[in-house]
Structure formats: structure tokens, C-alpha cells
Design a protein that fits this description.
Blueprint: E1 2-5, H1 12-29, E2 33-42, H2 46-62, E3 67-73, E4 80-88, E5 103-108, E6 121-122, H3 130-145, E7 151-154, H4 159-171, E8 174-178, H5 190-194, E9 197-198, E10 201-206, H6 208-220, E11 224-232, E12 236-241, E13 244-250
């Protein structure tokens, strides 16, 4: 996987840590185990380079993955950082493996806290030791290898619903989601929580018979998880809340990724 990041936060150290954590999480979301990380920096000065590198190294140490190289360029119209990760998987969780009528699960580690004022975030990594964090992430690998789940996506800067919309659009599906099935920390209201960028948050797709055991995997490690809806053929992402229902996305008209209809 590879992804690029503009300065989503003011501190270059935090910027580097977020980029590394996000790229590594992408590998776990596919059922893989990360092996190595590389990066590209452009349009940054020497002080920013050092802080960015420290942030990336810290997250790599935390997740037990070496940063094996990168490239730095002084050119660029603005600061730029990209992180790429190589991983290995015995079985893949891919969007296009999802089918209509399957369960949509959300797993979020609520044992964290909000930090900074510049974006909606939830950090549950900072207070964990390295092995605990890696074991928590390895749940995704086990679910893939055992065939319990067929698709997954990490909750990214698009938030819970935006990340789900990207999964559904890529799979050519729609879904109905019940917002009342989500647990919200006291420091957030529901609307902000739906837009949050968490350090540990995953959406998973599985058959109904695998739902209970999949949820137990997360609950055994103290991670909140619940079924929030089902996939369907509608090509619409519909939300319900206390008896009211409406369409958030109609992928037959437009989507986030703007894939061919």
C-alpha cells in the first residue's frame, strides 16, 4: 500500500506518526502483516525532515516494522509526505469479495483520548505497549486466514461513514446502517464521532453465521465491536436513526471514488 499526506496537523512529528500509522493500518485492514516501510518527503526543510522522521520511526518501533529507506526532495509547491508499506498475507480481505446480505461490523478501540485541536481524532495507541498493539491489530489477520470475514477497511480521514462508502462503492454495493448501534465516547457527540479519525478503527464484512465469533474476537481484547448494518444490492448507503431513514450516498449517481457505473 502507499498513500500521501498533506500536513493534516501542525506538528511535523505528529504528521509523520499519523502517516506511518495509517499506512501500516492499511496492510492490517487487508489481512496482511506489515514487513517494511519507506517514505518520500518533499517541500520540507531540514528541521521538518528530522521531526517527520522521528514521528515515523516512533510509530514503526511501536508496530515492530522497520523503516528501510526513503527519498527527500527540496522541491515542491508545498510540504508533502508519502508512506508505502510492503506486507505479506496468507488470505486477503478485499472490498470486491463482499456480497449483498452480509453483516457490516464496526470495531473501535474506545480506550483512548482525543488529542490536539486541529482535527477530529481518537488515539488509542499511545497508552499501549508495542506487543499489545500488534496483537490487537493481528485480529484482522486471523479473521482473514480463517475465512471469518471477506472484506475490511480501516476507518481513515473520511470517518466511519465515508470509509464505509468507499468500501461499498468499490464493491458495487449499498447498505443500510443503524446509527443507534454505535457507541460514542463522552467527549464526542454522534455527528463528530462519525467523522473521527481513529488510531484503531475497522469496518468488516462477514456472513451472518460468522458475526458472533468475530465480535467476540475483539471483545476478548477489550475492543468495542458491534454489527451496524447489512450490505444490499441497492447501490445506496442508507442511514437510520430512531425510526427515521434517509440516503447519504446514491452510488448510481455519484460517489466518493467516482468509479465507473
Amino acid at each position: 500500500t502507499v498513500d500521501f499526506f498533506t500536513p493534516v496537523v501542525d506538528d511535523p512529528y505528529d504528521w509523520g506518526a499519523i502517516a506511518a500509522a495509517n499506512a501500516l493500518s492499511d496492510i492490517y485492514a487487508m489481512g496482511g502483516r506489515p514487513l517494511a516501510l519507506v517514505n518520500v518527503m518533499a517541500g520540507v526543510d531540514e528541521q521538518q525532515i528530522e521531526s517527520l522522521s522521528q514521528g515515523i520511526r516512533q510509530e514503526c518501533r511501536r508496530l515492530q516494522v522497520p523503516m528501510v529507506g526513503g527519498h527527500i526532495s527540496p522541491e515542491g509547491r508545498g510540504p508533502f509526505l508519502a508512506a508505502g508499506v510492503l506486507g505479506r498475507a496468507k488470505a486477503l480481505l478485499t472490498d470486491r469479495s463482499a456480497r449483498p446480505g452480509q453483516e457490516i461490523l464496526l470495531a473501535m478501540d474506545l480506550r483512548g483520548e482525543r488529542w490536539g485541536e486541529y482535527l477530529l481524532n481518537w488515539d488509542s495507541h499511545a497508552k499501549k505497549d508495542s506487543q499489545t498493539l500488534c496483537d490487537d491489530l493481528a485480529i484482522l489477520c486471523a479473521l482473514a486466514e480463517e475465512g471469518a470475514c471477506v472484506a475490511a477497511k480501516d476507518v481513515s480521514n473520511a470517518g466511519i461513514l465515508g470509509s464505509l462508502a468507499m468500501l461499498l462503492e468499490n464493491a458495487g454495493l449499498g447498505a443500510r446502517v443503524d446509527l443507534a448501534r454505535m457507541e460514542v465516547p463522552d467527549s464526542f457527540d454522534l455527528l463528530d464521532w462519525l467523522k473521527v479519525y481513529p488510531s484503531y478503527g475497522f469496518l468488516l464484512i462477514c456472513d451472518q453465521e460468522a458475526k458472533a465469533e468475530t465480535l467476540r474476537r475483539f471483545e476478548k481484547r477489550g475492543i468495542w465491536a458491534n454489527g451496524i448494518g447489512r450490505t444490499e444490492n441497492s447501490r445506496e448507503l442508507r442511514l437510520s436513526w430512531k425510526g427515521d431513514e434517509d440516503v447519504l450516498f446514491d452510488f448510481s449517481r455519484a460517489g466518493i471514488l467516482n468509479l465507473p457505473r
